[in-house]
Amino acid sequence: MDWKTFARSIIVITEKNMRIYYFKGPVVVFGLLFPLIMFLTFFIGRNLDLVLFFPGFLGMMLFFTASSVGPLITPWEKREKTYERLLSLPVILESIIIGDLLAGAIFGVAITTIVFAICAVLLHLPIANAGLLAFSFVLGSITFAALGTLLASPTTDNPSNIMMLSSLIRLPLIFISGIFIPLSQLGGWQWALTSLSPLTYLVDLFHAALNGNAVYPSWLDALVLVIVILLFIWCTKVIQKRNLVKGI
Amino acid sequence: MDAIEAKNLRKSFGAVTAVDDVSITIPEGGIFGFLGPNGAGKTTTIRMLTGVLIPDAGSVRILGTDVNKEPLTAKLKMGVIPENGTVYSDLTAEQNILITAKFYGMDRASRERRSNEILDRLGLTERKDDLVRTFSKGMRQRISIACAIVHSPPVLLLDEPTTGLDVYSRRLVIDTVRHMNREGSTILLTTHNIEEANALCNTISIINKGKIVATGSPEKLKKTFDTSRYVEVSFDQPVGKDLFAAPGITRAEPWGDKWRVYTDDPDHAVKHLASVAEREHLTIVSIATSNPTLEEAFVQLTAGV
User: Fold this and answer.
1) Which residues of A fall within a CB distance of 8 Å from B47?
2) Domain locations in chain B as residue ranges
3) What is the C-alpha separation between B71 and B50, in angstroms, rounded?
4) In terms of CATH architecture, what is B224-303?
5) In the A/B pair of chains, how many CB contacts fall below 8 A?
6) Are the Cβ atoms of A247 and B11 closer than 8 angstroms?
7) CATH hierarchy code of domain B2-217
8) How far is Cα B98 from Cα B295, in angstroms, rounded to an integer?
9) Do A5 and B76 count as a contact with CB atoms less than 8 A apart?
10) Neighboring chain B residues of A238 at a CB cutoff of 8 Å
11) How far is Cα B61 from Cα B78, in angstroms, rounded to an integer?
12) Do residues B128 and B110 lie in contact, with contact meaning Cβ atoms separated by under 8 Å?
């Protein structure tokens, strides 16, 4: 393995993705407007404790932004026929997957950091553990960027098909992630259901970092997210490799 | 060392075998043409040669490096123009070239120098800052070629590089291919344009239904199909097919206002036609013999005649 060429291919693919896809309509709509509208819909006029629910909003923001770039890239490039050109350059499948993932993760971290900084100033948010907060930003954005890359894997050259599939999967995850109801107030089947969503663990990490009152230990939240990242990347590689063999 | 060495490549899509046991060896420095009708397996083969498609069986080596075992090293040695020559339409012409150069590890100064050089050669300097989405098909193809040659690859693979281009763009593409070959690149190009293959290539393989049916220099292929020589003749009045029945004449068919008479021995056929004309009181208006063409060889091989 030529590691230098591999690392370079990841960096150039990430740069290419950032230049081309950050300002595409679906990314702006699903990555920026959608979480803001969701926030306004559920929080404005309901006398909710913004500080208490802010970790949930932050998790939702990071979830939407980080997972909005990945689903667009591969279908778009297949439609434009640039995917084949990319594959013929000195890259391998892993370079493309990681490059797409990093583009999504950087977008997620950048946008969510800006939103957080503004909110922290306006709402005078407490920060219990700044290091854990930064770590959560990075880990969460990688997790959901990996989800975005996985969502782009099914065979299609129509980006709108993937964006639809992406909404179909992302929206239910929002509702079973303890964003709108604190985890500590859940029990039985509701608790079991929230345990299935990776977003639950990120929101819990944000609770630990901001308020210091998480339900799970932070190491457990982080471990689950790392396992989810590896699982998403592995599934993406299996599906995309199969597509490559089939020539689609 | 051979520039490209493909052994026993096989690829099926479901029940359809697109490429069946194809082997190619291309020595360094040549221009190799891969000729075949639509759907013959040209693009599938080139996609396997470039590592875009994983073969069901067989191996590909580019200058000694196995494409499937060491894809990064192998791909550094080649430049590829995929079918339809696609580039990023949301980037400018120059950005497309520069970002491609980055994949090959070229430093900033080399990237910019080479980009300017190629844009100038391909007549795109004035449009270098324009988004590719505003370009015509010919201009997009030229950018695609610019991206493929930016790192001066020792092996250049082109999939139907001139299909659908206007005369000016086509000529620029062909000139660039020749220039790259003079600079030392080994070229493999697929085409269904026989004249282009005839004019450009040292060696041609004809592929049909996923199999290579003939390989050789254009002249050798023409001679292989010597039986396709013919005489074109026209008379002052209509004649029937029976007139041409004679030993050595394989078939005759109407060809516009003439008859095309296929024969192993054109001289003998001319004498026969002259004697028949005299016997039947016909006047020969025109008569000409024709040497075999690559097109005839191609048609016979791919039609299974």
Assistant:
1) 84, 247
2) 2-217, 224-303
3) 9
4) 2-Layer Sandwich (3.30)
5) 85
6) yes
7) 3.40.50.300
8) 40
9) yes
10) none
11) 11
12) no
**Least CB-CB distance to B75: which of A80, A82, A89?**
A89
The chain B residues in contact with chain A (CB within 8 A) are 11, 13, 44, 47, 50-54, 70-73, 75-76, 78, 80, 82-84, 86-91, 95, 99-100, 102-105, 144, 147
Non-local (6+) Cβ contacts of B280 within 8 A are B239, B243
pLDDT computed for residue B95 by the predictor: 94
Q: Residue B265 has what pLDDT?
A: 81
The pTM for the full model equals: 0.82
Whether residue A53 has pLDDT greater than 90: no
Q: Taking the CB of residue B209, how many other CB atoms lie within 10 A of it?
A: 16
Q: Where are the domains of chain A?
A: 3-39+47-180+189-246
State the average pLDDT over residues A22-35: 81
Pairing of strands B211-216, B65-66: unpaired
> Is there a contact between B82 and A244 if contact means CB atoms under 8 Å apart?
no
Tens-of-pLDDT digits for all 305 residues of chain B? 788 999 999 999 888 888 988 899 999 988 998 888 888 888 899 999 998 888 999 999 999 999 999 999 999 999 998 877 688 999 999 999 999 999 999 999 999 999 999 999 888 899 989 999 898 888 888 899 999 999 999 999 998 888 777 888 888 888 888 998 998 899 998 887 777 788 888 888 888 888 888 888 877 777 666 556 788 899 988 888 888 888 888 888 888 888 988 887 888 888 888 888 888 888 999 988 876 667 767 776 676 54
